[in-house]
Design goal:
Chain B: Residues 1-4, 53-58, 111-116, 169-178 are lumenal. The complex is a heterodimer of chains A (10) and B (212). With 10 residues, chain A is largely without helices or strands. By secondary structure, chain B is an all-alpha fold. Chain B has one domain. Chain B contains 8 helices and 2 strands, in the order ααααααβααβ. Chain B has helices spanning 3-26, 34-47, 58-81, 96-108, 115-129, 132-141, 146-173, 178-200; strands at 143-144, 208-209. The longest helix of chain B is centred in the C-terminal third of the chain and has 28 residues, at 146-173. Classes of the chains: A little secondary structure (10), B mainly alpha (212). The A-B interface holds A 2, 4-10 and B 5, 9, 12, 50, 54, 56-57, 60, 63-64, 67, 111-112, 117, 120, 162, 165, 175-177, 180.
């Protein structure tokens, strides 16, 4: 499974 | 973090502070759409639930806390503290037309079918259209105070700067998040008309007013 994108943005 | 992302965050923060100060100093929320502010409070609440599950950085956490707290402060000022000055008669956009479709879309198009991920996606979609009640109010009254125009410009340019940030990240980090990019494009497009008026009128010292 693809990782969901890292939520490092606001 | 690249320069576009940083400037985007700063302009977002500036927008929030400009609005808070405008209302607090003038003791009035005339010309401000309470509905848009309510939508932004929902946006921040549903997006930053990861405050409880993930720690990314001190910067990240503090900005999120400031965004959430200030959005609630703004809503409180409009609907409680300075309620008498709130121009509800002109704030007539039907927010269910924004909330329902974005909620449905977030169930259909998301990265992962989990509660946190769906709420995050919902917040991205809702943010892209949350300014519509405010823009509707400006078009209905045909004018906006200059300080409100500065607020709208700072808020609009923030997502535009994020678009450049995403181009940068795709180029140098091979990172991209299609949901955020498409929503960010929609969000930016909604401001284009306003950007034009801002540059041609407000920056030349005139008040923003629309032809009757």
């Amino acid at each position: 499974e693809e990782e969901t994108p890292l939520k490092d943005e606001l | 973090m690249n320069i576009f992302r940083f400037l985007g965050d700063i302009s977002h923060l500036s927008a929030i502070i400009i609005l808070l100060l405008k209302i607090w100093k003038s003791r009035s929320c005339a010309g401000i759409s309470g509905k848009s502010q309510l939508l932004f409070a929902i946006v921040f609440t549903t997006r930053y639930l990861d405050l409880f599950t993930n720690f990314i950085s001190f910067y990240n956490t503090s900005m999120k806390v400031v965004y959430v707290a200030s959005s609630y402060a703004t809503v409180w000022m409009i609907y409680s503290k300075f309620k008498a000055t709130y121009d509800g008669n002109h704030d007539t956009f039907r927010v269910e037309f924004l909330i329902v479709p974005t909620a449905i879309l977030s169930f259909l198009v998301n990265h992962d079918f989990t509660p946190l991920e769906i709420l995050w996606t919902f917040s991205i979609y809702l943010e892209s259209v949350a300014i519509l009640p405010q823009l509707f109010m400006v078009s209905k009254t045909g004018e906006a105070e200059t300080i409100t125009s500065h607020y709208l410009f700072a808020l609009g340019i923030y997502r535009t700067l994020y678009l450049f940030n995403w181009i940068w990240r795709y180029q140098f980090e091979e990172f991209f998040d299609l949901i955020a990019i498409v929503a960010g494009l929609v969000q930016t497009v909604l401001y284009c008309d306003f950007f034009y008026l801002y540059i041609t009128k407000v920056l030349k010292g005139k008040k923003l007013s629309l032809p009757a």
